[in-house]
Amino acid sequence: MPTERIGPPPSAGEREMLRAYLDYHRATLAMKCDSLSDEDLRRQSMPPSTLSLLGLVRHMAEVERAWFRRVINGEDIPLVWSDEGDYQVAYEASAATRSEAFDAWQTEVNHARRIEEEAESLDVTGHEPKSGEEVSLRLVMLHLIHEYARHNGHADFLREGIDGTVGA
What range does the domain containing 106 cover? Predict the structure, then answer.
């Protein structure tokens, strides 16, 4: 079944707009993976890069987990694929499956949506350990929109290399 992607509204409040753009970009990544086999999803771009669509999905599961659960919600949990906190491990998807990657990603997206919906406002803050600063939910949502947009560009090229599919 193809992924349904709903475009953001032309006019809305700040929170609704951020939520809509984030969901739009989440759906875009899923669309880039629609109807592909596990083998296709593991196909790497070009040497020396090991980037693959499954690697991107796994990476975005880590990003969702880190920013929403660890930073905003203050949960003391490891990354999904690395107890040592190495974000690069998620990109290694040579033995990954669609089911494994998408289940983890969807779990983290669901947690992120719940955390965002339960937050009193976009001004809610969490501690970001790399910078040592307090960051707002607003910044986190903007950061994730940026992160998805960047990686969806990678996904465009990866998908085109697999079967020639191009476009939104």
Answer: 14-163
Identify the CA nearest to 57 among candidates 36, 37, 87, 33. 33
The residues near 87 (Cβ < 8 Å, ≥ 6 apart) are 59, 62, 63, 66, 79
pTM: 0.95
- Render pLDDT for 38-90 as a digit per residue (tens, 0 to 9): 999 999 988 788 899 999 999 999 999 999 999 999 999 999 999 888 888 99
CA separation for the pair 123, 70 (Å, rounded): 17
Residue recorded with tokens 């929170």? 15
Strand 133-136 with 125-128, pairing: antiparallel
Q: Nearest 5°: phi and psi at 135? A: -125, 150
**Do the domain assignments include residue 110?**
yes
